[in-house]
Amino acid sequence: MSRPRDVLIIGAGLSGMYALHRLRALGFDAHVYEAGSDVGGTWYWNRYPGARFDSESWTYGFSFSEELLRDWNWSEHFSPQPETLRYCNFVADRLDLRRDMSFGFRVAAARWDDAAGEWEIAASDGRRERARFLVTAIGALSAPVMPRIPGTETFGGEAHHTGLWPHEPVSFAGKRVGIVGTGASAVQAIPEIAKSAARLTVFQRSPNWCAPLGNGPIDEPTQRRIHATYEEIFARCRDSYGCFVHDADPRNAVEVSAEEREALYEKTYAMPGFAKWMGNFRDILIDPAANDTISDFMRRKIRSRLKDPALAEKLVPRNHGYGTRRVPLETGYYETFNRPNVRLVDLREAPIERVTPAGIVAGGEEHALDMIVYATGFDAITGGFDRIDFRGREGKALKDKWAGGPRTYLGMQVAGFPNLFMLIGPHSAALFCNMTRCIEQQVEFVSALLEHVRDRGLARVEADPRAEEDWTAHVHDTAARMLFTQVDSWMTGVHSEIRRARGRMAMVYAGGAPKFRKRCEEVAAAGYAGFRLG
Ligand code: NAP
């Protein structure tokens, strides 16, 4: 074990990278521990074909450094994973981050030592490190989930989870590929795999409402314009609900004429990115009648893109309204099902029974496969925390404290766990957010708080139980009127393959990033109200 440090950071994704940079700049002795072999987090692990984000690239990069902005050019409006991973490496190189990072260090346990006033982390191989403060930068979608299908271990071909994709190239050429799941990851992977696979069989249980991404290359004049207007771009992001360049239309869908509604739906459908989710009528995610109007529009769009009407019906969601789950953005997803080498297996008619050495048996039929891709998602938001045995005061386990659902103060601290800070934690606005924008806000809040504590000669910060109770109630109250709380998804903490005592609940702060930021600023201005400093 090296000497105790000021701050340990778990994770070398974008939040861990910026936390390290910021804390170092403030004079803290900070160090990052990362399970992977390099930086990148999400972009390090999710290397499946077609992976890319749905934030406009030019809104996604770090805004805190003019040099980083000046010296980086995004090549597409929605950057593909290899380029985003290159961006992470560019940032790590420029900020010389790796000298304070340890790779291949999977944190298995973290224990608060009350007498010493320190956290001790232990790696899965037994290595230990200590520090006064512990910051988790473990991401919200970092614990991949395999389906509970009998026989998965018996499969004789290749099998990959999208969230644990191999670093070596994976070839689909001439292969019979099966993919399980139709969430955002699958929706990106399916069109890419179909291009070269001999046959692609899509095992779908619940269709999602997918809509066009509208990606394209960034030409030279646009590149120059982006560089010249970064300040405006980030100001615009700062003021919008999810820190995207899309803001809700102030009108209600139910109060305008059918023609006006249709016009806005057509317009946002044709616009790139999340315009069709975040930039639509303000009531579509709140009012069931308004939601029906856009679901009806989207249903028509799906039908118009498929040649076979019966197949189209299988791809139309029936169990949730448009936008109440995160909208997967796609490029040619529906058209892929028109290809002769692609087949949809509707698991509601023909449930998967088992995986065999030769393929997947569904509805009594064996589908012979050379490769299975599991696009079965993540144990979101709390899953990354559950994989680490966090012990706070008196040895109390975080997992037990959160058995009935997370309880947090501002999504950043937990009563009973002094000096532990979470970035992009449960109950924060970051989960509905253009990630890097919200990461910057949270890292800056936490590092300013640590500076405040250090400069006053203090050593401990812990959420007041009352503040935690109030914030947790506020998170639930804020989400109550939103339709997404009535639907199973990772945003409500539900994954079909994980059995939990807790039921569906809001896991994210739904008040939007501007309100969240304002609350954080008020808390800081009031001497970090709600935090016990000692
Ligand atoms: P996901 O949305 O949770 O989707 C998992 C899929 O697997 C669902 O279709 C689910 O079906 C299916 N599934 C799970 N177990 C199954 C089983 N036993 N049998 C059959 N199907 C099964 O996961 P994801 O696609 O990885 O996406 C998660 C989140 O990551 C996204 O919502 C998004 O926030 C983020 N993401 C973002 C991007 C991007 O920026 N473009 C790309 C990828 C992912 P049911 O719905 O029936 O449970």
Describe this structure in words.
The chain has 534 residues and is α/β, with parallel strands linked by helices. The chain has a domain at 5-39 and 97-143 and 379-529: FAD/NAD(P)-binding domain (3-Layer(bba) Sandwich), CATH 3.50.50.60. Helices cover 33% and strands 16% of the residues. The chain has 18 helices and 20 strands. It has helices at 14-25, 42-45, 57-60, 66-70, 81-94, 184-196, 220-228, 230-239, 258-270, 275-278, 288-305, 309-315, 333-336, 383-386, 398-401, 435-455, 465-480, 513-525, and strands spanning 5-10, 30-33, 101-102, 107-113, 118-123, 128-136, 158-161, 176-180, 199-204, 211-212, 329-330, 342-346, 352-356, 359-362, 365-368, 371-374, 389-391, 420-422, 461-463, 531-533. Strands 1, 2, 3, 4, 5, 6, 17 and 18 form an eight-stranded mixed sheet that branches. The protein binds NADP nicotinamide-adenine-dinucleotide phosphate (NAP). The site of NADP nicotinamide-adenine-dinucleotide phosphate has 28 residues, from helix 6.
Question: What are the key terms here?
Answer:
534 residues; alpha/beta; FAD/NAD(P)-binding domain; 8-stranded mixed beta sheet; 5-stranded parallel beta sheet; 16% strand
